[in-house]
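Lab notes, practical 5.
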Amino acid sequence: MVLGVAGHRDLPAEDFPALRSQVRAIIEGLRKECLSTPIWLLSPLALGADQLAAEVALECDVRLIVPLPMLKPLYEKDFATAESLPRFRNLLARADAWFELPLAAGNESEQSIINR
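Output from the prediction step:
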């Protein structure tokens, strides 16, 4: 079973414990209902809900797949704080698999714009 996660990036810190508990309850409930079914989480590891769900999933021994929405060097520019980039990289390193999605037609990487 593959679970997907999407959510807000700017979660209030005081909501994290309750949200973590809810994600854990969902995973544990699915495990009880589907005893022999492996569970995977699909998360692009954006700040906020994506990373929260990935952390809980890994704590619950759920396997993690990370579809990066663009090339990794471009995506990493979104993690601007001192703690956000190492946190992203740590989660990515713990993933069972990750891949980069190509830019959509008509979009250009920052590098190709700079080289004009």
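Observations recorded by the TA: Confidence is low (pLDDT under 50) at residues 112-116. The CA atoms of residues 71 and 100 lie 5 Å apart.
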